[in-house]
Design a protein that fits this description.
single chain; 4-stranded antiparallel β-sheet; 4 helices; 8 strands; elongated; alpha+beta
Length: about 190
């Protein structure tokens, strides 16, 4: 006997709908997962003429990630500490990623300001440069930073910016002395 002639009640194995977007409700009915515009506030289940919105009101806001966790930055600080050249490359990478917080970590003593990090997150930054002078425990690099817009907190202007990076070395390795400087270091800094 063909299965089409057997009523639902008589079936020993119940049919079910299979789809990555279907859901079985407690009452035995099925619904469809609907993702409207791709935002968390537009995800719902629909069954017949009923709709259940998954995230609404204050639960619909995504968390804002302003800075990475400390371990993320520590990895780069450890890599950069090996040589002045490595530290300079790490600084350029942090700038290219828009990671002001990363530069603060590389300096070890620079105060982190969330307002500047937020400015840098919306900028497109590109950094490159070269060594100006280096001793056994000090180094100065000129860095050219191209910025898509102005960052008043860090002194970057739209377009190309010429800044200087000062590096020092202690028993733990190389680190950033300050963040971005407008001029070469004074003579007494080298002592």
């Amino acid at each position: 006997m063909p299965t089409k002639n057997i009523s639902q009640e008589e079936l020993t194995v119940k049919p079910y709908y299979c789809s990555e977007r279907s859901v079985l409700f407690a009452d035995g009915s099925y619904g469809t997962l609907t993702v409207g515009n791709g935002k968390i506030t537009d995800i719902s289940y629909i069954s017949g003429d009923m709709e259940w919105i998954l995230f609404g009101g204050e639960s619909s806001e995504m968390p804002e990630l302003v800075r990475q966790d400390d371990y993320f930055y520590t990895q780069f600080a450890e890599k950069g500490a090996k040589s002045a050249g490595d530290m300079f490359e790490t600084c350029c990478m942090m700038i290219n990623l828009g990671e002001y917080a990363g530069l603060c970590e590389l300096s070890g003593n620079e105060e982190y300001l969330e307002e500047i990090q937020k400015e840098w997150q919306v900028l497109k930054l590109a950094a490159s440069g070269k060594e100006v002078e280096k001793t056994e425990d000090r180094g100065c690099y000129i860095i050219y930073i191209n910025a898509s817009d102005t960052s008043s907190g860090s002194g970057l202007q739209k377009g190309e910016n010429e800044k200087y990076i000062y590096l020092k070395r202690d028993r733990d390795g190389w680190y950033l002395d300050g963040i971005l400087h407008d001029a070469l270091p004074p003579e007494d800094w080298w002592k």
